[in-house]
Amino acid sequence: MKKVKLALLASIMALAILLPLNAAVAAQPQLASDITPQLKLALAIKAPDIAGVGLPVTITVVEKYTGKPVPKAGVWAVDVKDIENGTSDAEDYASLAEEYGQFLGWTNKDGNVSHRFKEAGQYVLVAVKKGFIPGFAMITVKPLKALAIKAPGVAGVGLPVTITVVEK
After folding, report:
1. What do you get for the CA distance between the two ends of the chain, in Å?
2. pLDDT of 141 over the 50 cut
3. Nearest to 55 by CA among 138, 118, 121
4. pLDDT tens-place string over residues 83-127
5. What was the pLDDT predicted at 88?
């Protein structure tokens, strides 16, 4: 009899704890659906940190959260020394890129655009497409040094040979 009373008391206490919790959850079904977050589509740029003057560089534009390639996105390069804007709004930077930047091209179906930079410098890459938050990346373009080897065309066995490495 004592065990039955304890089991009944435990059941009543469990119901007393659970009922207010269930009632609170059931009373607010609209709030849960109203708070559902919506991600706005955004672009991201994948590019090397350093590129050589006159050498081809491939820049890839993807969706920021999924990594899917984005075709038909416009890509601009803005020289860092030309940026004097105090804004932190991505849309403002995108319009500055379109106005002052160098247009590199439209991305292909794989999200790629290739370009050869003609001048050394540090650039902000900007990718823009309607319906997306613009994407940004930095790239430094440097003149790459090349080396050449000067050596005689023929050398005798066991004789000393002078081989010189020079910068082109």
Report:
1. 102
2. yes
3. 118
4. 665 555 556 656 666 677 899 999 999 999 999 999 999 999 999
5. 56
The H helix count followed by the E strand count for the chain is: 3, 10
* Burial (0-12, 13-18, 19+ Cβ within 10 Å), 117: buried
**Identity of the residue numbered 133:** I
Structure tokens that stand for 77 in this block? 């390069």
| Distance between CA atoms of residues 47 and 112, nearest Å | 10
Sign of the dihedral through C-alpha 76, 82, 85, 88:
positive
Q: Tell me, what amino acid is at 35? A: I
The number of residues in the chain equals 168
Q: Cα separations (Å) of 72 from 59, 75, 111?
A: 13, 9, 8
Q: What local confidence, expressed as pLDDT, does residue 47 receive?
A: 95
| DSSP-assigned letter for residue 2 | H
Instruction: Assign 18 a pLDDT band (cuts: 50, 70, 90).
Output: very low
Task: Please tell me the pTM assigned to this model.
Answer: 0.61
Q: Is 52 exposed, middle or buried (0-12, 13-18, 19+ CB in 10 A)?
A: middle
